[in-house]
Amino acid sequence: MYFQFSWIVIAVLATLCISLLWPKKPFMSNLRGKHLFLTGASSGIGLEIAKQALREGAYLTLVARNGEKMGIIAKSLLKQLECSPEQVLVKAADVTNYKEISKAVRESFDWRPIDILINNAGLTRSGFMEDFTVEDINVVVQTNLLGSVYPLHAVLPQLKLRSRDHPISIVFLGSLASLCWLYGNGVYTGTKYAVKGIAENLRLELAPYNMRVNLVCPGFVKTAFLDSVDNEEELTSGMGVASFYNRKSAQSPETVAKIALSGIKRGTFLITTTFGLGPILVILTRGFAPSESFLLNLVEALLAGPARIISYFSQAKIYWSLRSIHRKYNHDSQ
């Protein structure tokens, strides 16, 4: 048994070494001169993507609901990075309003043909399912789901035409909640699962074109979302055991943006930004959409069995811990 396990470990390590020494040709070598259309650009991951893309010499259309605020942020970015004002176009649009976002996309494409469409806008409302208001449910579903589909639907025909001569990337900001539950965020989790399904299907539809679909799945990120979570003690405790939440280990938006842009340039479909949990969830939930790399598929196949066993025992512990937390806080006491 030990001998067989040793050979598995050796095979995995050898495969990883070969993968590192035999890099795949990137889909895009760099972002210089590329035009990125970016929603949810005023803060968090979106703002950091904008910063790093500008540093590489990209052109940006920055979209946010508050155009005045976005304009101020854009001017600050240009001054900080010493970039030309001609590199940035600011558009005010609500991604849940098809008329507004389609107008923004058309005007952006007229300004400069789009090379990378990044559907970053998203939000959540944390809480137990029965505590959600109908308004909470609607805003999460509309922003995360319709906000990911509307910009794409408005510009996809033009992107297909442009792909004849230029590589095109369509990026969805998912989450580890696209691969596994996020405790206390049921509606959010449902929308992120849906985004994963849309991305997988679109990947097949665009196979005949010089286009790539990227699904970026970060874990916990140091944004305003964590502040709202930490105000709910029972919810925070449940997230700690069921979703491995630990604010101290949350990633910075800068780190997530760097990993995301690197994966986009490589043409990677499923991009996780966390080490440990992220790759394990990919192995357990990739489904019928294999990695672009044969070697990585081999590694995942070797680790799939152990990962499934780990998940079995982990879930048993999670259920036991959640029952203990429930008794402590007596959530549904009369």
| CATH domain topology | Rossmann fold
Could you say what the CATH architecture is?
Answer: 3-Layer(aba) Sandwich
The run of helices and strands is: HEHEHEHEHEHEHHHEHH
Classify the beta-strand content into a percent band: 5-15%
> What is the makeup of the main sheet?
7 strands, parallel
Number of H/I helices: 11
CATH class: Alpha Beta
Overall geometry: globular
Q: What is the structural class?
A: alpha/beta
Number of domains: 1
Q: What gyration radius follows from the Cα positions, in whole Å?
A: 21 Å
Pfam family, one: adh_short
Transmembrane segments: 6-22, 268-288
Keywords: Membrane, Transmembrane, Transmembrane helix
Family: Belongs to the short-chain dehydrogenases/reductases (SDR) family.
Task: Give your account of this protein's structure.
This protein has 334 residues and is of the alpha/beta class. The protein has one domain: 3-Layer(aba) Sandwich (Rossmann fold). The chain is 55% helix and 11% strand. The protein is built from eleven helices and seven strands. Strands 3-2-1-4-5-6-7 form a seven-stranded parallel β-sheet, sandwiched between helices. α6 links the parallel β5 and β6. α2 packs across α9, α4 packs parallel to α5 and α8 runs antiparallel to α11. The longest helix is centred in the last third of the chain and has 36 residues. It starts with a helix and ends in a 5-residue tail after the last helix. The relative contact order is 0.11. Keywords: Membrane, Transmembrane, Transmembrane helix. Pfam families: adh_short (PF00106). Belongs to the short-chain dehydrogenases/reductases (SDR) family. One of its GO terms (molecular function) is oxidoreductase activity, acting on the CH-OH group of donors, NAD or NADP as acceptor.
